[in-house]
Amino acid sequence: MITIKSPREIELLRIAGNVVYKTHKYLEPMIKEGITTAELNRLGEEFIRKQGCTPSFKGCEGYPYAICMSVNSEVVHGFPSNYKLKNGDIITLDIGACWKGYHGDSAWTYAVGEVDDEKKFLMEHTKESLFKGLEQVKPGQRIGDIGHAVEEYALAHNLGVVKELCGHGVGTEVHEDPEVLNYGPGGTGPKIKEGMVIAVEPMLTAGNPDIYLHDNDWTVDTIDGRPSAHYEHTVVVTKDGYEILTGELKKNG
Question: What is the pLDDT along the chain (253 residues), one digit of tens a residue?
Fold first, then answer.
């Protein structure tokens, strides 16, 4: 069931989303050659808890860590480990925080040192595809318009669209209705209404969009080993568009 959030709920979601944003900003300068993904996870979890929040993903459907750390060809749900980041890697940090029962959720892909042209191109255009999708978020549009815009942009730049994974509603659960696909025809799916809160999150690949699941039953990887990027914002639908909740805290008035 798709729920319309009240002003009180939106304020709680705004605070949770801002903690996610601040956690990204806190960790970003540490994403350098030599740091382990386990250390990034530890520092991120400590930071989230110091803000008075809990990590949304830890224990969610059994996921054992606070932050998903997906390196290079890993698409989503990478496990933090003793892997030391290397110059030329890319890493996606997918971060969730819960404030008074309400969640924020945002993923971002970062370069480690100097990355090659393929990875630069992938990152640039995956991020742009997110904002192409967000352009469709306004009352009267349909959820399918978001995925259509993402897919159209991705295919125009010869990038693969991972179809097995999608965005979603956000509220008192990390994943709520509706599903927000990154592909498909426009003019389909539920109508977008003011007060809906959704996470839009393109996951694109530099090569084949087909994926496989690691033995840990969580980490998703590209079938051809080519790199993948992932950008995500949680937004609330306003009367004439959207507000990014996983960004800087907006001042009322």
Answer: 999 999 999 999 999 999 999 999 999 999 999 999 999 999 999 999 999 999 999 999 999 999 999 999 999 999 999 999 999 999 999 999 999 999 999 999 999 999 999 999 999 999 999 999 999 999 999 999 999 999 999 999 999 999 999 999 999 999 999 999 999 999 999 999 999 999 999 999 999 999 999 999 999 999 999 999 999 999 999 999 999 999 987 654 3
Alpha-carbon span 251 to 159, nearest angstrom: 38
CA–CA gap between residue 79 and residue 81 (Å, rounded): 6
**Predicted model pTM:** 0.96
Amino acid at 170: V
Alpha helices in the chain (DSSP H): 7-27, 37-50, 117-134, 143-156
